[in-house]
Specification:
Strand 6 and strand 7 form a beta hairpin. The chain contains 16 helices and eight strands. The protein is mainly alpha-helical. It is globular, with a radius of gyration of 22 Å. The chain has a three-stranded antiparallel sheet, with helices on one face. Strands 5-7-6 form a three-stranded antiparallel sheet. Helix 7 packs antiparallel against helix 13 and helix 8 crosses helix 13.
Length: 346
């Protein structure tokens, strides 16, 4: 478990853990109790990563954590530890579940390494009788990163939209030792290879008959439910894990404390993209490259459009769910978080 925390690259945790280890070394806490402390920290870090909570406050949080929670009675220490971390942007179940489904988890550098850790933890949840060598496994995109003509036809008319919004999400990711062999193969070919895998996470594909938007969403929910069991909410409030936007009516949008009156999800999208273009014009250009089906300079590429203040166009013939998913991924692309972007609905 300490190895997991190392792989989360949260070195700011070390002073707190060293103090706890000293208690363990001197016999003040048992090995089971020390593991419980580590589990709580891992839980805190994983939930914040998935929900894209900024890491710049971790040093401040952990520098004083031991002093703020230390108690000679271990049960009191654990209670104080949980209560203290709960007050430090610790995501509740609804946000954690929603982001596991919607967020762009996979990316270069540390995002890829942390996403692999989450997939490994899901695999370990199945309690293998034999130890799995994760070092030889890599992350595989079921719907591939580069779509062949065959994949485009398979996904249908909205192939570009599906690829833009679902490619790097949890539902489309798995672990395999045959990444280079699977490559851009059609789903039916990939399915047969994944079915033959010894990994429990890939047993899911034994009963799957297609791999389109709905299938990716369904698997994401399946894996998100497992994640809720691996990293259960340790706060005092329980919340509904099911967050829905379909059928809701947005009334207010908040971005970095600025309030916008909105009357539809299209208004939410327009105001969000205008704000991104204003705050981070260079990253806005990158977003156009990442999401060509949703934003660009050529109005002829889209079915229904709104023009932004910088002259670009956005596709607005989208479901509430697609708009919400796109906005979340766009704000994360400019390193904002869901704390910085919030929609009030009725």
């Amino acid at each position: 478990m300490i190895i997991y925390i190392n792989r989360m690259e949260a070195t700011t945790v070390y002073p707190f853990l060293l103090n706890c280890y000293d208690d363990y070394y001197r016999g003040q806490i048992s090995d089971t109790q020390f593991v419980e402390v580590i589990s709580i920290i891992e839980n805190f870090l994983v939930r914040r990563f998935v929900c894209n909570v900024p890491t710049n406050q971790l040093n401040k949080i952990f520098n004083s954590l031991y002093k703020n929670t230390k108690d000679d009675i271990f049960d009191n220490f654990i209670k104080l530890l949980k209560n203290h971390l709960q007050s430090k942007n610790y995501p509740k179940d609804n946000e954690f579940f929603s982001r596991l489904i919607d967020a762009k988890l996979y990316g270069s550098g540390e995002r890829g390494r942390k996403t692999k850790l989450i997939l490994e933890s899901i695999e370990e949840f199945f309690e293998h009788k034999e130890q799995v060598d994760f070092d030889n496994l890599t992350i595989e995109h079921i719907m591939p990163q580069t779509l062949t003509q065959s994949w485009q036809e398979y996904l249908g008319e909205e192939w570009q939209l599906v690829h833009d919004l679902y490619l790097h999400t949890l539902g489309n990711l798995t672990l395999t030792g045959y990444n280079s062999e699977l490559s851009n193969d059609d789903f039916d070919i990939k399915k047969e290879k994944l079915k033959a895998s010894h990994l429990e996470i890939n047993k899911y594909f034994e009963k799957v008959t297609s791999w389109k938007k709905e299938d990716i969403e369904q698997r994401a929910k399946h894996l998100a439910e497992i994640c809720l069991k691996i990293w259960p909410y340790f706060g005092n409030e329980r919340t509904d894990a099911d967050v829905r936007v379909t059928g809701t009516n947005p009334k207010e949008l908040y971005i970095l404390g600025q309030q916008f009156e909105v009357h539809s999800w299209r208004d939410v999208l327009e105001n969000t993209m205008n704000t991104i273009a204003d705050l981070e014009p260079e990253k806005f250009e990158q977003i156009m490259v990442q999401f060509p089906r949703l934003v660009g300079r050529d109005p002829k590429k889209f079915r229904a459009i709104r023009q932004l203040k910088n002259g670009a166009y956005i596709e607005v013939n989208l479901s509430a769910q697609s708009i919400q998913r796109f906005c979340v991924q766009a704000i994360e692309a400019i390193e904002l978080t869901t704390d910085d972007w919030k929609v009030i609905t009725e």
